[in-house]
Amino acid sequence: MDQSFQFTMLVLEWLTTLFVFLLGLGILAIVIMFVIDVSQTKHAVRRNYPVVGRFRGLFEKLGEFFRQYFFALDREEMPFNRAQRAWVYRAAKGVDETVAFGSTLNLSPPGTPIFVNCPYPMLEEEMHAPDPIRIGPFARRPYDAPSFFNVSAMSYGALSKPAVLALSKGSRLAGNWLNTGEGGLAEWHLSGDCDIVFQIGTAKYGVRDAHGALNDERLKVIAGHEQVRMIELKLSQGAKPGKGGILPGAKVTEEIAAIRGIPAGQDSISPNRHPEINNAADLLDMLNHIRDVTGLPVGFKAVIGAWGWLDELFALINERGPESAPDFITVDSGDGGTGAAPMSLIDNVGLQIKESLPLVVDKLCYYGLRDRVRVIASGKLINPVDAAVALCMGADLISSARGFMFALGCIQALQCNKNTCPTGVTTHNKRLQRGLVPEDKAERVARYSKSMRKEIGTIAHSCGVPNPSKLQRFHCRIVQDDGRSVPLDEIYPIVAPFNVQSATQ
Questions:
Q1: Distance of CA 158 to the CA centre of its chain
Q2: Are 467 and 130 in contact (CB under 8 A)?
Q3: pLDDT digit string (tens) for 256-295?
Q4: Under a CB-based contact definition with an 8 Å cutoff, are residues 327 and 136 in contact?
Q5: What is the pTM of this model?
């Protein structure tokens, strides 16, 4: 008993001593920080509020993580609110996607879409999946795209290895394509045996020579993979129109450097544009050259700002013939994307998809090219309603990047450009990547893709058409400033083709 008492007292004595020591150490640290703060001249808050002012930076950093849970309401957070993210999470996990007790969405703000339900909606036996969409009828290897909803461009380097693996395997399970982004073709893209769209950015990563120009032999190697089904030439993207890709040096590993053909450990900054493309003729020449070399359908991706160049391009196509046209155009929204970019470009450069998409579709109609050129819509289309609106506006296909990032487990921590992504999606830190298990996330990717197609189909059936490919502008109305809604086909009337033959004579 005495020994036990003595041992207990000894432990308490040691703990007391340790507490006093740590307390003294803490007080000393506070005194040192106080002296440093009041004497430094660079930070006004710390100088005026020594020690306490240091917590401002900590709270600012932690706020990125905790604001979405404790302070933001379901419909107010940007760039994607909690309700939008929650739907993706539920779809990806395969849990119940229904809600109760009425809509939490305010349907009064201008721009809100309202679909016009049919009094005689489709019966189950009348519904059917859309037919595969043929892209590139003049290519040696045309592509019949099985899914109208696909993974948009995100490069390996910007994304982690586990993330790309999961996207590749999940895309195979769902039957959609995976766009490589501008960072080249990695074995992780091919590992899941899904269809691949290879993107060529302004730096020509993966298909460049020593001087950064397009290398036909490397291009042939890329096209030699059976999984590579299309080539996308990137002119611009939503995150940074008019600015090349930006990959911080911390993300340029030896492996990524080898894939891209660039030095390891250095910031990778692409040119603002393709140096060899200066006008519509150059663009068509490049697209047709790539198609001739690869035998694959070829198109381009662009954020629309100025649009006069589209008239020049489409008029030139009519002069050269329909075989000279791009096989598809990917219209990206100007309100940002997954890439690291200056805030000025993310916020205020380039038209939003709701304005640019019908503009492109209408010009294709006017020049008689609508049936020749497929239109892919991209830009914040992560939920069924937004994607369905894009289909009503005239898109043939939809691609999403951030929707699939949420399916992978992204929590919108806004750390994509810092190599500190807490969910392992956009980091090359092995410790952080450990949390992203490709086999598990592949299932989530597939479920999300299938759920999107199913729910968009549900909207179509309610509108009285058998599948999403039949949605038209009159199926959707847009709320105006006075609170009334107006049909899309009144806002953007259907454009009839002009007489191409007489115009070119």
A1: 12
A2: yes
A3: 888 888 888 887 777 888 999 999 999 999 999 999 999 9
A4: yes
A5: 0.84
